[in-house]
Specification:
The chain is an alpha+beta fold. It is 40% helix and 19% strand. It has a 6-stranded parallel beta sheet, sandwiched between helices. Strands 17, 18, 19, 20, 23 and 26 form a 6-stranded antiparallel beta sheet that branches. Strands 5-4-6-8 form a 4-stranded antiparallel beta sheet.
Length: 644
């Protein structure tokens, strides 16, 4: 039986559509899973969605649908994206799946039975209108509720606590004496920030909302989302349920997460497993964030990079390559349109794509597509072959350490070496003399072999383009296996190539940057656009007016923009998936005055940034002396109706 290998992504919140950040973790895990399958492992690759909790409950309420209907729609978007980017997971778990919910109840019962759960009182900052508890650090800059920005009060409720403190010593050992957390410096961070100051027990039940798993022994309490979510890694294998019977994959080989959720995975999760007497996962690989031009990617800032848009324009493999190549192990990476286009051009079009097309074209041109079997070794061969032969072990090591960018660097350095070999051996000069036939065939064979090895190793990263490259260099199924990488020279001596499409077309930098800037809004000036004075504006025609697209919408949520006392940020249901508009009306309206109201807005106004917040349009309001009044619609007008 093949050795088992279990890898997981975080299960994502279906509270907003997936973006390139979620894509990174999932594609990274997919690449590792594919690589391990290539190596012959019996792989279980798990991903899913984390669907309970107050935030989801609130979002569903705002959208006017049930929480289940809400999460169904977004969970489907995640699956659609994974399919689109060729993420080949083995299992997709949703925390609303029945088998998971009942297993979580059993986990709570077990923790209670084993004495790791106790009832006590939870004291925190409570916002009455939102019915929510907040921690000190979650409050807004004014110490108010981060959701509605109203005052909070100290309140106490009955809750269950998990004895995290009981595991303090064991956790410290885990973090300091093993290489569980990767990179290692992240483990030090955890010890200094959480263990040294003293681990506190965790409040693991809530009574202020209902969208979650009920505690079986006290049904007014709902399971804390993190206990619910972390359990997915074992319930998806069949822990405490009959749906699956795959606990022999446990313990996980790799849990991959970003730094934002490291502490839950490095402290609470191992402690839960210790409490349940289960073995600990072997590695928690923690990566950084993909930022956008140096700032955090966020839907409200409007700089979220949509993977579907990039995939459509540049091809899915190109995007997979780019994000994996750019993320240094453990640290943040910066997404910028320029970096991406240049990366595609340099690495994929110039280096890899060119190597494949040049080599195949030369075999075609000089030998009609099939190499003769005669050989003659020469200068530079040994160096190229030695590098290609050492590549597999180096890549495998990096993959095992989840250093995907480093693995790509290794492969691309062999690609560059091969390009240099072409310059050194000058096949076009060899081709001039019939006496060099055997030497020319050897040079081209060495190039084809190098491409074969690189392309097999790159297949987990680029699962669509690399099989095409392999086909072009004439590599049949028997020479694309992992075992075939052991030997330089696996291609038949009289290999036949198949000229094919250009794998990675070269991009025109200016055109692409302009295109990307137009779809991924760059920061604009922080300034409210003032209406022009009528006299100055002059007379316009009906056609001029028709350029302004006015539509109706309902305000589904509204809050003050933190850094400003003038601006409100409104979420609009515009009948077309929603949009955010920032409006300078905070002096005259409170957020709650607007929620549920129907307004008119300019739908085709260029997006702008106001105090760091993206505004995708402008709501209509009139100046009434010192005051401003929003134009509200009477009656039941469908959202998104055209106003003329
Ligand atoms: N539901 C929890 C996880 C529970 S796991 C038991 C959660 N969900 S999340 O939707 O917020 O996803 C967080 C994860 O998404 C990060 O840990 C990371 O894997 C990925 N990323 C989200 N934004 C990201 C970037 N900007 N950059 C890189 N990864 C990012 O937390």
């Amino acid at each position: 039986m093949n050795k088992k290998f279990y890898i997981t992504t975080p299960i994502y919140y279906p509270s907003a559509a997936p973006h390139i950040g979620h894509l990174y973790t999932t594609v990274a895990c997919d690449t590792i899973a594919r690589f391990k399958r290539l190596q012959g492992y019996d792989v279980m690759f798990l991903t899913g969605t984390d669907e309970h909790g107050q935030k989801i409950e609130q979002k569903a309420k705002e959208a006017g649908v049930t929480p289940k209907a809400y999460v169904d729609e977004i969970a489907a978007k995640f699956r659609k994206l994974w399919k689109y980017v060729n993420v080949d997971y083995d299992r997709f778990i949703r925390t609303t799946d029945d088998y998971h919910e009942s297993a979580v109840q059993r986990i709570y019962e077990k923790l209670l039975e084993k004495g790791y759960l106790y009832k006590s009182e939870y004291t925190g900052k409570y916002c009455t209108p939102c019915e929510s508890f907040w921690t000190e650090s979650q409050l807004d800059d004014n110490g108010n509720c981060p959701e509605c920005h109203r005052e909070v009060r100290e309140a106490t409720e009955e809750a269950y606590f998990f004895k995290l403190s009981a595991f303090s010593e064991q956790l410290e050992k885990l973090l300091t004496e093993t290489d569980f957390v990767q990179p290692e410096w992240r483990a030090k961070e955890l010890v200094n920030n959480f263990i040294k100051p003293g681990l506190e027990d965790v409040c693991v039940s809530r009574t202020s909302f209902t969208w979650g798993v009920k505690l079986p022994f006290d049904e007014k309490h709902i399971a804390y989302v993190w206990i619910d979510a972390l359990s997915n890694y074992i319930t998806a294998l069949g822990y405490e349920n009959d749906r699956y019977d795959d606990m022999d994959y446990w313990a996980a080989d790799i849990h991959m997460v970003a730094k934002d959720i490291m502490r839950f995975h490095a402290l609470i999760w191992p402690a839960m497993l210790m409490a349940l007497d289960l073995p600990l996962p072997k590695m928690l690989s923690v990566h950084g964030y993909i930022n956008f031009n140096g700032t955090k990617m966020s839907k409200s800032i409007g700089n979220v990079v949509d993977p579907f848009v990039l995939g459509e324009r540049y091809g899915v493999d190109t995007i997979r390559y780019h994000i994996l190549r750019e993320m240094p192990f453990g640290s943040d990476s910066d997404y910028s349109n320029e970096i991406m286009i240049n990366r595609i051009n340099y690495d994929l079009a110039n280096d890899l794509g060119n190597l494949v097309s040049r080599t195949v074209a030369m075999v075609d041109k000089y030998f009609g597509g099939t190499l003769p079997a005669d050989r003659q070794e020469g200068d530079f061969d040994r160096e190229l072959i030695a590098q290609a032969e050492a590549l597999t072990a180096a890549v495998a090591k990096n993959i095992d350490e989840t250093k995907l960018s480093a693995a790509l660097t290794e492969i691309m350095s062999v690609v560059s070496r091969a390009n240099k070999y072409i310059d050194e051996t000058t096949p076009w000069i060899l081709a001039k003399d019939e006496a060099n036939r055997a030497r020319l065939a050897t040079v081209l064979y060495n190039l084809l072999e190098t491409v074969r090895i690189c392309a097999v190793l790159l297949t987990p990263f680029m699962p669509t383009a690399m099989p095409k490259a392999l086909e072009q260099v004439g590599a049949g199924a028997d020479v694309t296996t992992y075992a075939s990488l052991e030997k330089f020279g696996a291609l038949p001596a009289d290999v036949t190539v198949h000229k094919g499409e250009v794998l990675f077309p070269r991009l025109d930098v200016d055109t692409e940057i302009e295109y990307l800037n137009s779809i991924i809004a760059p920061a604009k000036e922080d300034k409210i656009v003032e209406d022009e004075d009528l006299d100055k504006a002059g007379i316009i025609t009906i056609d001029d007016f028709a350029k302004v697209k006015l539509r109706t919408a309902e305000v589904t949520a509204c809050e003050k923009v933190k850094k400003s006392n003038k601006l409100l940020k409104l979420q609009l249901d515009d009948g077309r998936g929603g949009r955010q508009v920032v409006s300078g009306i905070a002096k005259w309206y409170k957020p709650e005055d607007l929620v549920g109201k129907k307004i008119i807005f300019v739908a085709n106004l260029a997006p702008a940034k106001l105090c760091g917040e993206e505004s995708q349009g402008m709501i209509l309001a009139c100046d009434c002396g010192e005051e401003v009044r929003v134009v509200f619609m009477d009656g039941d007008v469908p959202n998104g109706s055209v106003v003329r």
